[in-house]
Structure formats: structure tokens, C-alpha cells
Input
Amino acid sequence: MSDPRSSDAHADVERVLVSAEAIAARVDELAAALRRDLAAAGAGDEGIVLMPVMTGSMLFVADLVRRLPQKLRLELAMVSSYPGTATTSRGPRLALPVPQGLAGRHVVLVDDILDSGQTLRFLRGEVLRQQPASLRAVVLLRKPSRAPADLPCEHVGFEIPDEFVVGYGLDFDGLYRNLPFVGVLRSPRR
Ligand code: IMP
Ligand code: MG
Output
């Protein structure tokens, strides 16, 4: 980092891209849209499974589920694509097996960001093989210049430029997940 002595994650941020207030307002809207969607799909009777992609979507899913009044289950997908200080995806790698028992369930994949789309494409395939009653995905952020056009993603919080971002769950080398906003780090990162 530019100042390796700083112990304050905020000090390494060059600029805030999405404020905590904007995130909160948008999560309200995403939750409302999801409620409508799930109701329209006939989801009920405990059939809803939210599958957050760990670790990045931890903060997002925590805020999202508290705005969903339906009975639902949380099943974690443990995927990592950015080992260590890498800032380009090395492709999704499973840290734990994909949750099973999704047949007949209404599954909602929850991720922090849709970048190359490899993570979402992989998980969609894994879930669809189990024949869920329905499948949708919600991501907080999308880099439209990178996300493949053929990959469905039903709900997107914010479209952002193709920059490496941290905060609100997103990390660089495991750090900065605790920032309450999404921002860009000061360079150089290494
Ligand atoms: P994809 O498979 O390329 O779509 O990448 C998705 C995963 O890469 C996300 O779940 C994030 O964990 C991570 N990722 C992608 N872009 C960023 C970024 O700008 N900052 C931090 N992590 C990112
Ligand atoms: Mg991730």
C-alpha cells in the first residue's frame, strides 16, 4: 500500500464509488423486487433457498435477508477466484462442495459482483443440474464491460466501471471487506 504503516482500512481508499447510503437504499429495492419475483414464481412453504457466494457476498446477503420476510434457508457456496493479491480472476474454484438437495426449491444465488461471469455461470450450472423449481441471481455490482451478454442475472444493484473495487464484502488480499461502502484503492496496490 502507499502507506504500509496505516492500520485504518479507510486510509487506503482513493475514492468512494457507491456510498453506504446508496447501498442501503438499493438493497431495499432489490429485496422488494425479489419478494415480488418469488411470489410470482409461487415460492412458499419453506421452499426458498438463498445461496450466497462466500466470502464476498457476506455483508450483502446479511442486509438482504433482513429485508425478506418469507421463510427461507441459507446455503453457502464457497468459491474463490482471486487467490492472494491477484486482481484478475483465475476462474472459480470450489472451497467446499456445492450445496445439494435443491430439487423443487426456489434458489436465489447472491454474489457481490458479476465480473467475468465465470462464478455465476458455474454455479448456475451446478444448481440447474439439481432441478430446482426456479433459479435467479442477484448481484450487488456488475461490470457491464466485462459481463457476458448471454449470462442471465435477474437483479443487479449497480453497474460500475471496469475497476478493481473493495468494501462491503469485497476484498483485496483478504482486506477491506469491512468498509461500509464500495470504493477504489489508492495505487500502487503491490
Ligand atoms: P467472476 O467469476 O469473474 O464474475 O468474478 C466474480 C468474483 O470475483 C466475485 O465474486 C468477487 O469475489 C471477485 N471479484 C470480481 N471483481 C472484483 C473486484 O473488483 N474487487 C474484488 N473482488 C472482485
Ligand atoms: Mg466472490
About this structure: The chain has a mean pLDDT of 91. Residues 53, 56, 111-112 surround magnesium ion (ligand 2) (CB under 6 Å). The two ends are 6 Å apart (CA to CA). The first helix runs from residue 20 to 40.
